[in-house]
Amino acid sequence: MSAAASMESEKLILGYPVKDIPWERLLLISAFVVLMIFYTFATENFLTLENFVNVVRRDAWLFFLAYAQTIVIVSAGFDLSQGSIMSVVSVMAWSAMLHFGFFFGFIIGLGIGLLCGVINGFFVGVVRVYPFIATLGMLFIGSGTAQLWTGGLQMGGAREGATLPKHVEEAYVFLAKGNLGPIPFTFIWILIVLATMWYLLKYTRFGTYVYALGGNEQTAISAGINYPAMKIAIFGIGGLLCGFAGLLLSASVSAAGEPRLGGGDQLLQSIGATIIGGTHIFGGRGGVLGTTLGVFLIIFLVNGLNIMGIDTYRQQIIVGLVILVSIWVSTLREQKN
Amino acid sequence: MSESKNLLRMLKIDKSFPGVHALKEVDFDLGEGEVHILLGENGAGKSTLIKILAGIYHADSGQIEISETPTIIPDARTGRDLGISVIYQELNLVPDLSVAKNIFLGREPVLPGVMRRVDWARVEQESRAIMERLDVKIDVNAPVRSLSVADQQMVEIARALAFDSKILVMDEPTSSLSGHEIEELFKAVTRLREHGVGIIYISHRLEEVHEIGDRVTVLRDGEYMGTWEVKDVELDFLITQMVGRTLDEKFPWTPRARGEVALRVRGLTRNGVFEDINFDLHYGEIVGLSGLVGAGRTEVARAVMGADTVDSGTVEMTNATKEKEEIQKLPHYPLWMALVDVVVFMLALPLFTVIFQGIYDPFTLNMNSPPPLFSANWFYEWILGGPLYNIPNGPTPYIVAAGLALIRQVGLWFLERQYRWRTLVIDFASWYALAIGAMVITSLFTQNFVLEWVMIWGGIAMVAIRFLTILTHERKWTPTLAIRRGLGLLPEDRKTQGLTQVLSVAYNTTSANIRRLIKRWLLNLTMEKDLVDEHINQLKIMTPDQETQIRFLSGGNQQKVVLAKWLFRRANVLIFDEPTRGIDVGAKFEVHSQMLQLAEDGAAVMMISSELPEILGMSDRILVMREGRLTADIDRNEATQEGILRYAMTAD
Questions:
Q1: Binding-face residues of B in 139-168 toward A, CB within 8 A
Q2: Contact (Cβ atoms closer than 8 angstroms) between residue A81 and residue A138
Q3: What are the pLDDT digits (tens) for B570-598?
Q4: What is the ipTM of this complex?
Q5: Is the CB of B350 less than 8 angstroms away from the CB of A18?
Q6: How far apart are CA B333 and CA B468, in angstroms?
Q7: Helix B421-444 and helix B459-473: axis angle, to 10°?
């Protein structure tokens, strides 16, 4: 009986043993292709360069959020607090920019994101609370702090006498909408972070340990990996990227400090993109390249629906269903085992 | 071997757990380049000894010497640093990292420089060197997940080598390997031996003793029986050393008349777990199922219960209904596949409906009148918010539809490899029949709302009907069905699988058959009280009252509550999995009496047990399993401890 099993495992298709073909990945790619074909036929200006550039520029924040979620989920964690980290960073960075100018405001914004992430990591790694609970706490603390900071108002838009100086505001908007020659800056940010994260996960000791923690925690710990430090670092990187995503999104919504910035479906979309991209929900498997594909799938799904003139409520239903089905499909294999 | 250098000596190791004296002054030693086999029955103390060596447990008394120096091993880390590596049955690897990364996990070499970059080239090179040393062909860059179990074991051995381990413990390394893989493993072991590594080899396969071992030590009930040179001893001698547990326990066994067949199991197979299991269980009979831990006994019980799926075989229960229920493979059309179909169908719809030319031409469409109810246009209005534009005429839609169907078929082939090719062809043909039929008919009538209606809702109905058909025809053998037929399983892990710890005795007794208490849509609590009292008295459950929480009861009484639960359910075919594990002697006798009483009342009883005296004392008939196969069916009068152990441990 085990002889038969070993025979089967020796048969290779596309370099994979038969039982290990990543069909969830194949399914994702074919779904993406089908979707693109459908939109191309169903709408007039879906398949244009202009549309592509606009969409990626506008939804650039989702890439960073999804990369943050990817590294956390690969290490068998979970980050629910992404949205509220974005909100906190948005309002606090705005205040900092008001006083210290764009550059220091930007750095402070990233620092706050990092700090929130490190606190998450502390509770997960040192106190050993489940990531789900720890980040749920951070979700409420963050959104509460952001609301308290501004009294619930938007900063920069609604309140009299509190607008950023012109040059600061221009620099802030440039972050999201600027171009380097013909290439939008956001593309460059995405490429830099993607390349860094990819290298980090694939070729460094840190990345190896991230996969080890997600794949087999006991083995990882018994191999001498510093669990608390790793968790703090992983959630810290996650928080940092969330902070950057928050700054980008605030910049693209007219450089305002918005306390409800991350209160929408950002979290769901980042988890969705990560899971659709082949990262396994219980950790140990996946990566940022797949996540990039997942993000593309989500933003162009929404974009196509927009062009077809479908209203937001139906869009939410469709996006929710797509994410639900793809998570379900990706867990099927584990259920079988 | 005694003249070679001593790697390890364990002297007078003594260890007690609450209630159990696990090791009684056990001696053990290991020389350089030696394979020392450790033998013993279930619970003889082998794994306790190993865990003490690995630093997971601490001996109560005794001394450990490593390379002639007395040593204390406080934790697993120290054990590893001292050169002790244990390869457990559950492999300890990270599945998605490459082989090389796994071998060097936690000790990656670093390139000089501020960046402290990992020298991956060296990791790969050294891993390759170790693999060469073991003379195995494993791609060190492949993820561990893609390797067979045998190769994963090699990776573990390679990892031990990379740690420069001098003492390697292998806990039943061959239990999940096939013949060829075992040979490979033995070759690797021989090579390790040549490099001076000492190997402690735990096995349940007695034939391996002569094949691989230099010396053999036998433990029995935590007692050290002796160490022998392998070439001096016979297998039969080893078996007699392993058995011989005292038979002073009393068992309340009396002869009974055997009734009709209650449960008939034929050809039950679950690939890699158990194979071709055949047995009958009669009313009024107690059958003992013996075998070593890991032989597949519990798995067989779970499969008979319908809790796990099987690859082939039947379970037949011959009570009241006399109806034959077959264990089937997974339905060929699972729920998720139906949903995938619906999604693909919806995506393909706009392309199919182009066939109805004229209906979807937005320029001729009269936008003032609402679309006909349930028509395709109504469908688009509702789902997509409006009609579709830019759908080209000509052959494109057909090509795209064909592409979609093809993707779906390829997907199916990847997803469901159990799918039969015939089913695939029929499936593909049915899709095309639908498309071509629609095409032909619409060429006759250009505008036909009825047809359109049939297209959309008929397609969805087709999927639904097919799903329902399969649901009703291919009926799986599930626990629900098994319980309805009168089968009850008392699981080994009764604390979590058999009972709800924080709820009352009454709740746990009645929960499996709450319907019995329902009168006019409500629970009749007075009746519950009476019935539970009846069961408490009948089974002599020692509990202050029926509202006491289960966790306050002793192990024996908890076991009785599980039994009460099945009796309340009126189960008459009962499978006891290790019924007396963790129960004190007095309660043991009572559980045995209850079992006997059940059989006398006409129930069919099957008892899985690792304790040979219990098996011999209680069973009318004894089945023995070895590595997923039934190897013997022995009558009570002919059974001996040696006989059972021989069937359980040696190939015939």
A1: 145-146, 148-150
A2: yes
A3: 888 999 998 888 777 777 888 898 899 99
A4: 0.81
A5: no
A6: 10
A7: 150
